TrEMBL record:
InterPro entries: Yippee, Yippee/Mis18/Cereblon, Yippee_fam. The keyword Metal-binding applies. This is Protein yippee-like. Residues 1-23 are annotated as: Disordered.
């Protein structure tokens, strides 16, 4: 174990805020990890830093578009006609309680929807904010 006592003052924040999402101020204090949990069993399924869009349209209302999720099981891939065209999607379920949480975009056939490939959608009604 090397005990290096480097005391460099001045913390340089390298967080580039490229997204123009509106951050709603919640309860102040405790700026820890902001997590999303399964609304059914409360196991962590996503991190807020993975959220790409909070204004996504789900099947039953608002949903989140994410670059990555945790503790989910990806179901079989199938072609599905969505509002934005034909997509190859796979349902994603909670790994613990198997509640259906949303879906994954395996492939987008429309060129304008290619950015969704490999992304995940979580229905807002299926998840809850934890540690916020
Ligand atoms: Zn669950």
């Amino acid at each position: 174990m090397s005990s290096s006592s480097s005391s460099i003052s001045g913390s340089s924040r390298s967080s580039s805020s490229s997204s123009d999402e509106t951050v709603v101020p919640l309860l102040s204090g405790g700026a820890g990890a902001r997590l999303y949990s399964c609304a059914n069993c409360r196991s962590n399924v996503a991190d807020h830093s993975d959220v790409i869009s909070t204004a996504f349209q789900g099947r039953n209302g608002r949903a989140y578009l994410l670059g990555g999720v945790d503790n989910v099981v990806v179901g079989p891939r199938e072609d599905r006609h969505l509002m934005t065209g034909l997509h190859a999607v796979a349902d994603i379920s909670c790994a613990h309680c198997h509640e259906l949480l949303g879906w994954k975009y395996e492939r987008a056939y429309e060129h304008s929807q290619k950015y969704k490939e490999g992304k995940f959608v979580l229905e807002r009604s299926k998840i809850m904010k934890d540690c916020w």
